[in-house]
């Protein structure tokens, strides 16, 4: 089993006060780092929103296929809406154990927006991966889902803006060549309409399918470690800062934790909504009971350290973690490094019930027209299009 590494931790108050030392950021994101920073003492509503949205992940993943099919967007290469069984694992097998729901977070900048703002170069016709409007489950199907999703994403992006401000201070103190002045990264994160969020539901695995698959992240890199990374390649995110919640483990074999128990209630509310002009009778679904910890201690987030060692990093439940992406590495001229990582699900053989794993990742990314390579004048849209083309099959 890989060793557990202790990630650098700072308080939200220190970020607000601007008192995080440059040495701390270098330790968290620099060339010899794990590329991850944990923020503690986040707003108290975070715990409630995290528990509620990660419960919705189980509800969503257990909707009837006919309803999930309506949430798919193959034209956007499934980078919008729902997908299941659309990714291929390292051994060529289709990944059927990870459901994924993507939503654009342009609502952070303007509540009327449902996707990134087009440019002269990028339009819905030529870049639907970023310019397709969100596909939400209707309110009668998953009451309260969109509201909870957006509220948690806003909170995480608020914290990301403060982390970005600290990165700007680091860049100024380190005198990074060509780094724009005036709070560049903070502006990028706070004004971006391309930021995406990905809600993940790792279905309970079957003991006959062991070892449990390694789940894919957002963008690709290479790995040659067969012991820890035997189902798919280790990945790099291609944005700036990826906000992560701790994972929620749910034993779906228990009646009180089984999301399908609530489905008749949802279907009844949906039928009621079709025959009535009034609001659905169910405003929010109840949060599901959360296990104190994973029954499989090996389940979770793994990072490839700069020394080539694979380590496990655990995110405390009441904290938000931020990983570095390729865009940030380019913007900082390599002073901050993107982190290669993968996720391992809970092995059924170590679970007495049927344990699902739910989590949320928020990928803060520059606007399509923002430059990420300030020397070669490459925009994020151009950079992201290349990444998407490399990671998807026509």
TrEMBL record:
SUPFAM superfamilies in the record: Clavaminate synthase-like
InterPro entries on file: IPNS-like_sf (IPR027443)
Highest taxon of source: Eukaryota
Compositional bias of kind Low complexity: 269-297
Start and end residues of each stretch annotated as Disordered: 269-300
Protein's UniProt name: Clavaminate synthase-like protein
Lineage of producing organism: Eukaryota, Fungi, Dikarya, Ascomycota, Pezizomycotina
């Amino acid at each position: 089993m890989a060793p557990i590494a202790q990630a650098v931790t700072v308080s939200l108050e220190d970020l607000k006060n601007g008192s995080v030392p440059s040495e701390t950021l270098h330790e968290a994101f620099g060339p010899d780092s794990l590329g991850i920073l944990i923020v503690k003492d986040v707003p108290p509503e975070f715990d409630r929103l995290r528990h509620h949205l990660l419960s919705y992940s189980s509800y969503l993943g257990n909707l009837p296929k006919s309803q999930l099919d309506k949430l798919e967007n193959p034209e956007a290469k499934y980078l919008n809406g729902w997908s299941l069984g659309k990714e291929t694992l390292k051994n060529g097998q289709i990944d059927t154990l990870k459901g994924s729901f993507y939503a654009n977070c342009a609502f952070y900048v303007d509540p009327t927006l449902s996707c990134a703002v087009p440019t002269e170069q990028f339009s819905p016709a030529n870049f639907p991966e970023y310019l397709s409007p969100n596909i939400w489950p209707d309110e009668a199907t998953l009451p309260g889902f969109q509201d909870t999703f957006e509220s948690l994403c806003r909170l995480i992006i608020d914290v990301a803006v403060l982390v970005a401000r600290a990165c700007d201070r680091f860049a100024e103190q380190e005198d990074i060549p060509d780094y724009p002045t005036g709070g560049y990264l903070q502006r990028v994160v706070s004004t971006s309409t391309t930021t995406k969020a990905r809600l993940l539901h790792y279905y309970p695995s079957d003991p006959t399918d062991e070892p449990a698959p390694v789940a894919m992240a957002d963008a690709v890199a290479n790995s040659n470690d067969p012991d820890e990374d035997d189902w798919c390649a280790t990945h790099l995110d291609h944005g700036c800062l990826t906000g992560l919640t701790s994972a929620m483990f749910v034993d779906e074999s228990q009646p009180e934790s089984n999301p399908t128990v609530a489905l008749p209630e949802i279907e009844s509310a949906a039928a009621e909504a079709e025959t009535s002009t009034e609001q659905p009778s169910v405003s929010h679904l109840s949060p599901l009971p959360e296990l104190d910890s994973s029954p499989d201690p090996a389940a979770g987030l793994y990072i490839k350290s700069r020394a080539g060692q694979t380590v496990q990093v655990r995110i405390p439940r009441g904290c938000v973690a931020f990983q570095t992406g390729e865009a940030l590495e380019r913007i900082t001229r390599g002073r901050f490094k993107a982190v290669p990582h993968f996720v391992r699900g809970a092995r059924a053989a170590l679970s007495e019930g049927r344990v699902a794993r739910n989590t949320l990742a928020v990928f803060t990314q520059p606007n399509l027209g923002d430059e990420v390579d300030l020397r070669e004048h490459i925009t994020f849209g151009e950079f992201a299009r290349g990444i998407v083309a490399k990671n998807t099959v026509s």
